[in-house]
Amino acid sequence: MAKKERKFEDYFKIIKHKIPYWEELPEIDLYMDQVIVLMDKYLSFHKTDENSIIITHSMINNYVKLGIMPAPVKKKYSREHIAYLIMICTLKQCLPISEIKHLINLRVQRTSIEETLNFFSDLYDSTFNTVIAIGKKFSLKKPEDDEFLSDTALFMAIGSSASKYIASQIYNINKRENNDDNDKE
């Protein structure tokens, strides 16, 4: 039986790859169980299989204890908390928690959590589309070739590893430069 011809980007139309904007977040405060369900809805594309977990009660409590996000108010989580969790859960795929905390804090100090989430959502969308475009150009093989998906997965994994390395190097350079500026004051 002949394989159905598919375009590279067709493999990604099944799942919505979009980070919500501030305006799309719930306006009412939520309890932790509701937050976990919402995060699963927003970030299900991060799951590698149906048993993968996006976030747990313990993770949220640890993020609060580590000062990465503010504490809930009367056990309720606002849009602000949801925004932090979206960014944390997305970035923890490739960065250590200490770097995530620093990067989010730098951005929030310059703007606001609302603007930070909207910037993050725009950046995620444009980056995802760029990666899809690179993936389309990468393979000289046709999508119906047996090696297409495995070779493309290998390429993307190597690209992810390289991106992670570069992100960490940039983070370290930025941290050193900020410490040097603080030492001069």
Brief descriptors of the model:
185 residues, mainly alpha, 61% helix, globular
> What's the alpha carbon Rg, rounded to whole Å?
19 Å
**Proportion in β-strands:** under 5%
The low-pLDDT segments are: none
**Termini separation (Å)?**
72 Å
Question: Brief description of this entry?
Answer:
This protein has 185 residues and is mostly helical.
Could you please describe the fold and organization of this structure?
The chain folds into 2 domains: 131 residues, no CATH class; 46 residues. It is built from 6 helices and no strands. Helix 1 crosses helix 3, helix 3 packs across helix 4 and helix 3 runs parallel beside helix 5.
Helices and strands in order:
Layout: H1 32-43, H2 57-65, H3 79-91, H4 97-110, H5 113-138, H6 147-184
Helix pairs in contact: 1-3, 3-4, 3-5
